[in-house]
Every structure is written in C-alpha cells, then in structure tokens.
Specification:
262 residues; single chain; 41% helix; Rossmann fold; 4-stranded mixed sheet; 10 strands; alpha/beta; 16% strand; 2 domains
Length: 262
C-alpha cells in the first residue's frame, strides 16, 4: 500500500512523484547504499529497519532509542522512525486515552508503542506467548534504560487478566490470508476501552469486529499506516497535512486495499 499512500500524499502537495518499491535482499543491503543515496529520501521496512542503522551518518534520538528506522533523508543520510507518530496521530483522531496499555507481542511495532506510552507515564503490560518471554525480557530491559521507574509487566497472552484503557495488537495474528485469527480470547475485550489493531489487511480484522460488537472504540491499522507515512513527508520536506486530508486518504486506501485483495 505504500506507493498508493505516498503518491496520494505527494498529490495533495501538488507534486507528481513516483514512489518506487525496491526489493533488496539482506545480503545486498551494504552494496545498495550508493544507489539509495541517489534518492532524495526513502522509506525502510522489514527486514532492514535495524540492519540499515550502521550505514547511516546520523540517527534521530527516537529511532536510536527504538533501534529501528523507517524513514531516511539522504542529505546527511539521517534515519528517523515515524511508527510512534502514526500510533499517536491515529489515537488522537479517535480521542482515545492510554493511561494503562495492554500491548500484544514484542515485535517492532510493540517496541515503538511501548517507548511512546512509557514516555507519557502510562502503565504497560506486554502479553506474549511463553516461548517469547525471553525476547520480551530483553525489550523490557531496553525500556528500563530510559524509564527505570516505569510500571511494566508481562502477562501470558493465553490468560490475560486486568483492565486497560487501550489494547494494542502488535502481532500479525488476523492478517491476510489468515483473517479468522484472534490474538486474544474474546472475553479479554470486555475489560478494555479501546482496541487498536496494527494489522491493516483486512480493513476490519476479527479482533476489530469483535471489539465493535462489544461496543468498544476501535482504531484500524490503516489509520496508523497513513499517519506514519504523512509524518515521513514532514521529515522529507516539512509538509504538515490537515486531518481531513489524511482521513480522505485513509478512506480511499481502504477502497484500494479491497480492490487489490477483493
């Protein structure tokens, strides 16, 4: 979806820009740096979000803290991360609070969100499978380097307890083509005020559908995807978009996703 979203964002600025997609295997990343520097800027996705960092001349403090970049300005070859911006702006657009957060999974999205909510003095519970506890412990150790007194807990994703303002799904469960999956049991949603699913394909995951049935606020993954793309443009050329324009792109991106995948 990135080419569609970014080209729409450029169009709002009155610019006709081609947003290329480059498929660079991990072993070819180092040799691709001169080619990448020929662009005005570029986005970064898995599996290069951490691997690119040693090749950068400088890195924004938020990206350094997260250990991940998704946006690069080639003038100065500096890396940034806009994942947290996408999360925050998507939440703001739904007027959602996050004093207590239940985060599912310990991947890159959860890491970005974890740092952001802890910086706002929220309590954070990370729910993972038993086989991921060691990885989760490492992430929590990184959190505590910056927030030593933060309220951080680990829970078993199969047996979640407690009540939360916000549930954030940072796992791929429910993503196309396995759209019937749910990362947590349905009864977990009874004790949360808002469900935020980072999965954007399908438009409404099973998790979001169940949350809607229970009368909960919901935030879709497409909202986060478009807002983080808009934040990249602010880094590249200083452009700030109004909420109405972004909401139009989100709506049209849902339609484009349905056109592609049916």
């Amino acid at each position: 979806m990135s080419p569609y979203i970014h080209e729409r964002l450029f169009a709002f600025k009155g610019e006709k820009v081609i947003y290329d997609v480059l498929d660079i295997p991990p072993d070819f990343l180092a040799g691709s740096i001169p080619m990448l520097k020929a662009y005005d800027g570029f986005s970064v996705t898995i599996p290069h979000k951490s691997a690119l960092i040693p090749f950068l001349d400088s890195i924004d403090q938020r990206a350094l803290r997260q250990g991940s970049v998704n946006t690069v300005v080639t003038d100065g070859f500096k890396g940034f991360s806009t994942d947290a911006d996408g999360f925050l702006m998507a939440l703001k657009s739904k007027n959602t609070d996050y004093k207590s957060v239940l985060c599912l999974g310990c991947g890159g999205a959860s890491r970005a969100v974890g740092f952001e909510v802890l910086s706002k003095n929220a309590s954070l519970t990370i729910a993972v499978r038993k086989q991921s506890i060691e990885k989760c412990d490492i992430m929590i150790s990184d959190f505590r380097k910056y927030f030593p007194d933060a309220n951080i807990n680990i829970d078993d994703i199969e047996n979640i307890t407690g009540a939360y303002n916000l549930l954030f799904n940072g796992t791929p469960v429910g993503m196309y083509p396995n759209i019937g999956g749910m990362p947590v049991k349905s009864n977990v949603l009874d004790n949360v005020d808002c469900v935020f699913d980072a999965v954007y394909n399908p438009n409404e995951t099973e998790l979001v559908k169940q949350a809607i049935l229970k009368g909960k606020k919901t935030v879709h993954g497409m909202d986060m995807l478009v807002w983080q793309a808009a934040a990249s443009h602010k880094i590249w050329d200083g452009t700030e978009f109004c909420r109405k324009d972004i909401e139009n792109i989100i709506k049209d991106s849902h339609k484009e996703l349905e056109r592609i995948y049916g």
